[in-house]
Amino acid sequence: MSNAVEFHGIRRRFGAVTAVDDVSFSIAAGETVALLGPSGCGKTTILRIIAGFERPDHGTVSIGGRDVTALKPYERNVGLLFQHYALFPHMTVAENIAYGLRHRGTDKSEIPDRVEEMLALVRLQGFGTRRPHQLSGGQQQRVALARALATRPGLVLLDEPLSALDAKLRQDLRAELKQVLAAVNSTAMVVTHDQEEAMSLGERVFLMQSGRIVQVGTPSEVYGRPGSRFAADFMGRANWIEAQVTRRETGLARAVSRSGLALTVPNCAADAIDVCIRPENIVLSAADTAAPDGLANSAEGRILNVALLGSTRQILVETAGGEQLLVMQANRVGDGLDPGRAVRIGFPVDACITLPAGNQAALPSAL
Amino acid sequence: MITLPYVVRTVLASLAGRDRRLTEAALVLGATERQAFWTITLPLIRSGMVTGAVFAFAVSLDDVAVSMFLTDPSTYTLPVALVSSMRASFDLSIAAAAVLLMAVTAFLIIVLERFVGFDRLLGQGLFRS
């Protein structure tokens, strides 16, 4: 058994809408993957097919080497962490965690020990007799996780695990979630529309668009080398410069943007290109100095506005040619980066992602 | 019969208010559909069923007009009897019956509070213990 989950040629239609269109992937045992995509891309349908709430029209699903395509949810051993936890309100925390154990035929005498073990795993010892409504959101989420993991499922599905929590708590729980999943060494799939959640939890990211998986890779691959304009925009903030290649050198291309900005970018087969630069890769320096060493691309510009985000600032810079670029800058005291100020922007060749122009996405799903 | 909609409505309301995901959670945890119904669905709609029953009783006790049309000369409900005796003569037994009705209503409310709890009928309540 090399792969914990095999998804082969899955297709699912609802009326005229193809929710999942010929999707295949596999997840190795012990691996955590993130299924990422905008709402309506079909990721929830995939989750429901794996859990057994939906049947695919075509294709097979196997978990742990066993074909489960036609099995009911209770005939598979899949753990599911619901977005809003779905704890049973009329049961105590311990009863919630024991529910799966009782129905999966765990020996009665073992159940209390397993429940204690799970409570310890999520650091909620002593909370066994409470009711779900007496717990905070974060605690409820941990109970739901304990309940999902109690039966030692072959695969744990996490449906938007952190989206119901506020931002601060989300960061803490993200780390904790990762620890717990590693501690039980379970195979897991995180289904989310939040790219931060996907990149921080998943060892691999499956990026979905319109019912298809359009890119698979480690978080840094998908973020740093997006395969399409959609992937680049979905994974984070991106500046786009449309340009025309004028000359090619080994591995490099010289190009000129519409506004006349000369660029040196990684090579690309197409002549009409879209260049993506992540805001954190643009360096600001004083306007009257030369571009810092190592930055092949640079331009004069002026700060249009500054949005303070706490430890960082988003600075919108307009170049002399009229290109508007978003720059992410650490929020340091007294650097005088205020609106109206003239600055020089610069970015290295390897900060540029070159895509053929008009590459909106993968092919639209053929109906 | 007239009160059937009240029962159906309150039970349906508690069925709809119940998160469908709870049943799915039960299934994914290994319960069959039947087990999920007995352990999750039924306990959660119990308050709706009790509420429906109480409403049904209160409404049939109360609805003079409907009762008048539905009763025949030999059997009649208390409100119907009250109205006709009010027409015929005015004596203290009407007042006594009215007091009795109020007492029964109050008793029912207390029963409802004891067994279902207004907190659960009205949602979570403001304060959590």
The general outline of chain A is: elongated
Q: Report the structural category of chain B.
A: mainly alpha
Radius of gyration of chain A: 25 Å
> Helix share of residues of chain B?
over 70%
Low-pLDDT residue spans of chain B = 124-129
Strand content of chain B: under 5%
Order of adjacent strands in the largest pleated sheet of chain A: 6-7-8-3-9-10
Poorly predicted parts of chain A: 361-367
What's the main sheet of chain A like? 6 strands, mixed
Task: Describe the protein in words.
The complex is a heterodimer of chains A (367) and B (129). With 367 residues, chain A is an alpha+beta fold. In chain A, the strands form 4 sheets. In chain A, strands 6-7-8-3-9-10 form a 6-stranded mixed β-sheet, sandwiched between helices. Chain A is built from 8 helices and 20 strands. Chain A starts with a strand and ends in an 11-residue tail after the last strand. The radius of gyration of chain A is 25 Å and the shape is elongated. In chain A, helix 2 packs across helix 3, helix 2 packs parallel to helix 4 and helix 3 crosses helix 4. With 129 residues, chain B is mainly α. Chain B is 78% helix and 0% strand. In chain B, helix 1 packs antiparallel against helix 3. The longest helix of chain B has 30 residues. The radius of gyration of chain B is 20 Å and the shape is elongated. The interface between A and B is medium-sized, with 25 and 20 residues.
